[in-house]
Design goal:
The chain has 362 residues and is α+β, with helices and mostly antiparallel strands. It has ten helices and 20 strands. The termini are far apart.
Length: 362
């Protein structure tokens, strides 16, 4: 699979009359693109893709790991400073026209390349665009990440009790995902927002105690072989106010309608519009404050976007979230999120957790 990805980049080289394309990854700053092209998952590397051969530079910390994970030609960086190694390789290969990622290369790195008498050509989000369409291997990994997260949700529901803190609930869910085979939870903090804190779409878990009558919004995902899932459920505890139950039913219907319509015939904007118009028709439009969804893969947020600004058709075999929400100040909030694979005329839902309202300890 990786060879096909490299061939796509090499075709871009030919189309733009470039001798090579360089990718920098330091402290995981560009790990998704490097893993996508080479299979290497370490925190430090430089990739050089040329029209005929492909190279990965890394140091002694990761040399053996790179040998195991990647079939690119491997070069060990001996000195702490990588630039002599980079310069020697570019000169050896007679590279003069070099492409780089505008959104990933630091100014310092750009200045170093400028001093090498190269003609530099910048590309923005080049690999991110290629990554939007998943191959069979990627879809398998994302489905497994969804299975892990779905099962972890089911396992922690019986453990949720009035009197436990949001952070305790977050820890239980993380533990369940790790037991089920996740490498780790998705990057960032796990969202557990209960009661009035549910009005915050990204309310990180806190020491707030879960109380009778609370809605709890739980948003997380698992990383499996580098690929992410991203799932949200909102559940009730005890004697939940009718206003929250009403909001839940509106969000659920908006999500169901959007998923039912999802296919490659829709743009991100037109799919977003389905959820937004339904919620607005019920009088809650101003309280739906974020996009309907986003792509997932090697990152939790990637292309394609499901929002009002994306006028491009959603590509077949892209994976996106559908996650409408309503957030009411001083009352709380509801979000329901599933992961789907876009098909030509439909979609496949790959997260499987009950969506009808669950009320515990009632």
């Amino acid at each position: 699979m990786t060879n096909k990805r490299l061939l796509r980049v090499q075709q871009i080289l030919k189309e733009n009359e470039l001798d090579g394309f360089i990718f920098f990854n330091n402290e995981y700053s560009n790990r998704p693109n490097v893993q996508y092209l080479s299979g290497f998952t370490g925190s430090y590397s430089i990739l050089l893709i040329t029209k005929y051969n492909n190279y990965i530079i890394t140091d002694s910390r990761y040399f053996e790991q790179a040998q195991e994970e990647s079939d690119l030609q491997l070069i060990k960086q001996i000195e702490r400073d990588p630039w002599p190694t980079i310069r020697n390789l570019l000169q050896e290969l007679k590279i003069t026209r070099l492409g780089f990622e505008l959104d990933k290369l630091l100014v310092e790195g750009y200045k170093k390349l400028q001093k090498m008498d190269l003609k530099l050509y910048d590309f923005e989000k080049l690999i991110l665009g290629l990554r939007a369409v998943k191959d069979k291997e990627e879809l398998k990994f994302i489905k497994t990440a969804c299975q892990i997260t779905s099962k972890a949700f089911k396992n922690i529901f019986p453990k949720i009790k009035i009197g436990m803190t949001e952070s305790e609930l977050a820890a239980e869910l993380t533990y369940e995902m790790l037991k089920l085979g996740a490498e780790k939870p998705i990057v960032g903090y796990l969202i557990v927002a209960s009661g009035k804190r549910g009005q915050c779409p990204h309310g990180r878990s806190s020491d707030k105690i879960i109380e009778d009558g609370d809605f709890i919004t739980i948003d997380t995902g698992a990383i499996y072989n580098g690929y992410a899932s991203d799932i949200t459920r909102t559940i009730g505890v005890g004697d939940v106010p009718n206003d929250l139950i009403k909001i839940y039913e509106i969000v659920l219907e908006a999500q169901k309608r959007t998923i039912l319509s999802a296919s490659s015939h829709h743009t991100g904007a037109s799919l977003d519009k389905i959820a937004r118009e339904y919620i607005s028709s019920k009088g809650y439009g101003p309280y739906f404050t974020h996009s309907t969804g986003h792509g997932i893969g090697l990152e939790v947020h990637e292309l394609p976007r499901v929002n009002k600004d994306n006028i491009d058709k959603l590509p077949v075999n892209s994976v996106v979230t559908i996650e409408p929400g309503i957030y009411i100040p001083e009352l709380g909030g509801v979000r329901i999120e599933d992961d789907i694979i876009i098909k030509e005329d439909s979609c496949e839902v790959i997260s499987h957790i009950q969506k009808d309202l669950i009320i515990l300890n009632k």
